[in-house]
Inverse folding.
């Protein structure tokens, strides 16, 4: 791609560093900003800079937060004996939107993935084990995605905490509500049969 | 979507103002920036701000440029009697990448589209007519996309310049090089038959 302007080329280059944004998409986005009033670009740039420079991570659960202790951890009505282990803030948002969970979270910041150079040291695992050691936690719920990396991470954490007096559980895998059985994959369907629940519990 | 941080929410909101970027994609992009070193966000924000605040449009062809007169208009080896009318800078880049065109460009900045509130006044049409009036231009080549808006814009400009001593032409429509005839749409195929060229010219 030959650009008629270095400024344009630079903006497109930086935009295309974002995941899933190629050069063509980046050019489309940048040209859109050029057609809009200058304030839009200013607002975007300021929002990104302010966020990057001043955002904090909750010192207890590592969730993204504007203050030292996030709203969830600071809420006295949440059950501090339940800790749900998730990969990142999006999972916290997804679970919160169900309004079904009243415990706390622990955000790992990723999954163990040797191929990507992510070992246990890169994740917030140590602080989780410390939390369990202190004895306040009664149950650790694993809510990572069920990929090989997710299962590895679950097992690693399980091995770290099993010596302490703590229950461990993992979220249920099964057929999505509203899905047809015939289109489900065998592993999911198999698990949903193995881990069937008493009918009264499902009412 | 419930955000745990106002800063995050604001950054996601501004990002999702870009075309084709929804809230979920915006969140993914913003979280990516949070995982990368701070410098990446700084570079992105600075590149966008510098571009938006200091970029210029060539005073002759309205192409994006770092200086008053763009490289193409300033090049004495380009044929100033040929003017190719295009919609935006991406079309200039596309035509330049073919290395087949040695004339100048005129960037309209859009197409006439009454439904979107874009009339001839919103586009750089007046300066094109003035250019033609001055007499240096011998041929105006229309290279807008062949949509209803593109055809309308072509016809509007044609009506404005036909009284002056200038040739008008439009880029050839036909079967793409490498395409199979059976998969071509009827309009394109029809046009490629109507506007057939002497075989010797295609060698």
């Amino acid at each position: 791609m030959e650009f008629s302007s270095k400024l344009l080329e630079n903006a497109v280059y930086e935009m295309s560093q974002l995941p899933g944004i190629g050069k063509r998409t980046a050019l489309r986005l940048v040209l859109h900003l050029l057609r809009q009033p200058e304030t839009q670009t200013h607002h975007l740039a300021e929002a990104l800079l302010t966020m990057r420079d001043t955002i904090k991570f909750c010192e207890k659960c590592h969730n993204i937060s504007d203050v030292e202790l996030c709203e969830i951890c600071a809420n006295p009505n949440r059950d501090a004996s339940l800790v749900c282990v998730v990969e990142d803030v999006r999972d916290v948002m997804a679970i919160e939107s169900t309004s079904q969970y009243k415990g706390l979270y622990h955000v790992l910041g990723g999954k163990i993935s040797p191929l990507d150079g992510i070992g246990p040291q890169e994740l917030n695992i140590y602080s989780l084990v410390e939390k369990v050691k202190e004895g306040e936690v009664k149950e650790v719920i694993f809510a990572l995605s069920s990929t090989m990396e997710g299962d590895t991470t679950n097992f690693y954490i399980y091995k770290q905490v099993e010596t302490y007096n703590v229950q461990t559980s993992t979220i249920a895998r099964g057929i999505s509500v509203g899905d047809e059985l015939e289109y489900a994959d065998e592993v999911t369907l198999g698990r949903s049969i193995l881990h069937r629940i008493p009918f009264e519990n499902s009412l």
